[in-house]
Each structure stands twice: as structure tokens, then as C-alpha cells.
Amino acid sequence: MAKLGKRTVAIREGIDRKKLYPLEEALKMVRERAKAKFDETVEVAFNLGVDPRHADQMVRGVVNLPNGTGKTVRVAVFAKDAKAEEARKAGADVVGAEDLVAQVQEGNINFDRVIATPDMMPLVGRLGKILGPRNLMPNPKVGTVTPDVAGAVKAAKGGAVEFRVEKAGILHAGVGKVSFTEQALIENIKAFADAVQKSKPAGAKGTYVKRVALSSTMGPGVHIDPSSVH
Predict the structure, then answer these.
(1) What is the rounded distance in angstroms from the CA atom of residue 111 to the CA atom of residue 4?
(2) Alpha-carbon gap, residue 67 to 136, rounded angstroms
(3) Facing residues of 214 across strands?
(4) Which helix or strand (DSSP H or E) is residue 199 part of?
């Protein structure tokens, strides 16, 4: 086993890996150990009792964090004519139709979220192999395929976070920056946990939320008592 660096040992010190900490205490520990030279993201990870290979155990959704994410989200919108204009006015970074498809096919993907009007989906569907693996494919379930492009752009810019469970039942997301106040982060974490709880699929058996951990971009994970995030 590789030897841990001095920095890693120092920031892990004082964390009991077997203990479940109350949310406030865990958050304090994570913030105290965020020593990077940039404003680290606070991340929450859920270990869920689901197997996403079964359609009735898929967990996905979107949540508007009350205090935003603290990061600039670049938004691309597939729309034409009046809807394209609406998207531009709402603050979309890239707007287009066939031209935007060509741009993506050439590998120019300088955006973090993709929104499309329903009539554009046959066109956007061609990009499934490119956008799908990057988790950028627009989806009506999370409000990114919609005639209300202005509303969707504003939501994406204002702190809407999409989530989707991965293979091993792990679901994670950034819920703010270390520089946020403790209160702002707690509100964001609770809003995210609530959205995950509400997305519990019909096929979930036994314990739905098995474990919850909190960390910063460069910091160690701290396990949280799941009951303290609701």
C-alpha cells in the first residue's frame, strides 16, 4: 500500500472513519480541512440501496439549491427563431440548431448544461453518443427538454443541480463552496437530501439511504448520520 503523504495524514487526523457525525459537525470538519489554494467545492455522496441496472430502481432528478452552487454554469440551448431569442435574453451562453449540432460533432463542447425545445430533440438525438456519456443529454424528466427555455436557463444559472445514480448505487453532487456560510451549506445539503429522498424509486427494497458522506474537492470524506440531513 502506498504511503500517505504528510498533507493527507494531517487533514485526515481527527476523523474517525467508523463514526457517523451529525451534519453540522461533519461540515465543520470538512471546511477546516479545506486547505487548497482555491475555493473548494463541498460535495455530498449518497450510497443508495438501489441497482440502477433495473429501470424501476433508477434515481434521477433535479434540485434547485436555495443558495446556488457558487460555480458559473455555461448553458447551451438547442432552439430556433423566437425560442432561440428567448434563450439568449435569459442568459444562455451558446444557442443554435443545426450549427450547434455540427459544433458538438466537431468536439467543441464548452458548456456544462444542455437545454432543448421539444421540436429540437430529433436533431439533438443524433448527439446521444457524444452528450450521453458526459451526462449532458437533455431530458424532460429533469426539465431540460422544455418549451420554457428562459425558465430552464435561469434555473440552470441559478443553482439547479441534476443528479443521477451511478452503477454501484452511488450518487454525488457539489452543493456549494467552502467559502459559503455554514447555514447556506446546510440549507443546500438538506434541499439536496430531500430531493434524493423524494426520488426514491418504486423498486427500491430495504434501506434506501445506506450511507452519506461529505467532503471538499481535495479533502477527506466524513461520514454523516443520515438522519441529520433531513
Answers:
(1) 36
(2) 23
(3) 44, 222
(4) none
